[in-house]
Amino acid sequence: MKRSRPTVALLCLVQVFLLSQQRVSALGSPDPACTFVEPQTHQRAFSNVRSMFLRLSGSITHKLAAISAFQLAPDQFRFVHLNHLDEARSQINSRIRHVHWQLKSFVETFPDTLQTAHSQGILGLVREKLKKSSHLPCLDIAGSRPDHLPSFEAHRCIRSGPLAQQVDKVNSELTSKILKAFSISGWVQVTKKDGIEVWKRDASDIETGSFPQGVGPKKSGRGKFLCVRAQGIIDANINEVYKLFQTNDYVLEYNSMCQECLDVGWLDPSTKLTWASSKRIGPILPRDFVTRCHYRRLRDGTVVLATMSEPLLCEEFRQGGEYCRMDVTLGGYLLRPIDNGRKTEFSMLSLANPGGVLDSQ
């Protein structure tokens, strides 16, 4: 099978880095499954990678991106889990794409920048360009980490069943799909009022992930519904806003349609399951849903709350009458600090199947 240049470059980057370890020791590494790369070996590996990429055909910006991605954050790749090479490749590939995009954008706009260099000074313009680029939103999981919540209850962890398997892998894929949905094109603005913008988009081509059997929402019908995205600015520090989403204490205050919201259990310190129900509207039965809620911090400080439905019945919670089960195919919240941390850019995305007579079946 013929591989694309970026794929070949990525595989070479990982392989050269691993194969160039001439002196490897497990001493001092955080896990016996990890290998520790000594500084001298790390530098030799990087030199080999640099030489290899300079010989590759392709755009100069891609070469620079590949080298920069490895050089700017070597500490992230000092410890490599031998069973997680695919994850390492994914992280490196994501970083290469991000740096490549920034370099490509800079190169494309550089001629215009030169035209005004005589009045403002080239150094100042370059500095300003790089400053703006550093404030671009981060929309991939490279360098991200699960955010452990203080409300975690170890005794309520779900230890068996499909949901307890591959928790990290499922969480990473879910977060990745949500960030990708935020970043794709094709959104149509519905309204803009009081500083809040709302967009809609056909959901037929939105990737929702491929999860193990017994994990995640049902797959049918997403093409018959619209995905909705909204964004606004909250005049509060990100930590204050984030607290509202860490527990169920405030849900009924900011979501007028919610009737109940209870914790079902935990999958790990950054992932919990909740059961919630909506209010009845006329003849339409109240909806209930069981949701995986995963909390994660991206490398630029953005907080992500990634959600999707899980196939738990939770009959013990359905004591308030008759409910119709709703399916949250994909849902997410992004909290990003702006204005030197004084304000928070709040974004949300939702793709759901309301079920019942409104179902896609």
UniProtKB/TrEMBL annotation:
InterPro entries: START-like_dom_sf, START_lipid-bd_dom. Residues 1-26 form the signal peptide. Residues 185-361 form the START domain. GO terms for molecular function: lipid binding. It comes from the Eukaryota. PROSITE patterns: START. Keywords: Signal. The keyword Chloroplast does not apply. This is START domain-containing protein.
